[in-house]
Specification:
The chain is an all-alpha fold. The chain folds into two domains: about 10-40; about 45-95, no CATH class. Helix content is about 65%, strand content about 0%. It has helices spanning about 5-40, 55-75, 80-90. The termini are far apart.
Length: about 100
């Protein structure tokens, strides 16, 4: 009885693809951080989570975009992003 060794090769190929994908993501992240550090933080809107009361849809979108840009720029961690997003969602008014 002969067993086909093809399954192991597929796993190795997948591992190589995953490594290449992660390397590409890391390179893209570094380029993005370099670009944002070159341009400075002048264009990053201020994140205001201290407000009280409900947010309008436009205000919510502005705040979510701001924290997303901060996450992508590396100025906040994923945990801080999730916490800020949760705080914003708590302030959304449901009509």
């Amino acid at each position: 009885m002969l067993k086909c060794m093809g399954a192991q090769r597929t796993t190795f190929d997948k591992l190589q693809r995953d490594r290449a994908k992660k390397a590409k993501q890391a390179a893209k992240r570094e380029r993005r951080q370099e670009r944002s550090s070159d341009s400075g933080t002048d264009n990053v809107p201020e994140i205001n989570l201290d407000g009280e009361g409900p947010l309008t849809a436009a205000e919510l979108m502005q705040q979510v975009e701001a924290i997303t840009r901060s996450l992508e720029a590396g100025t906040i961690t994923l945990e801080e992003f999730e916490d800020a997003k949760a705080e914003l969602m708590e302030r959304v008014s449901i009509d």
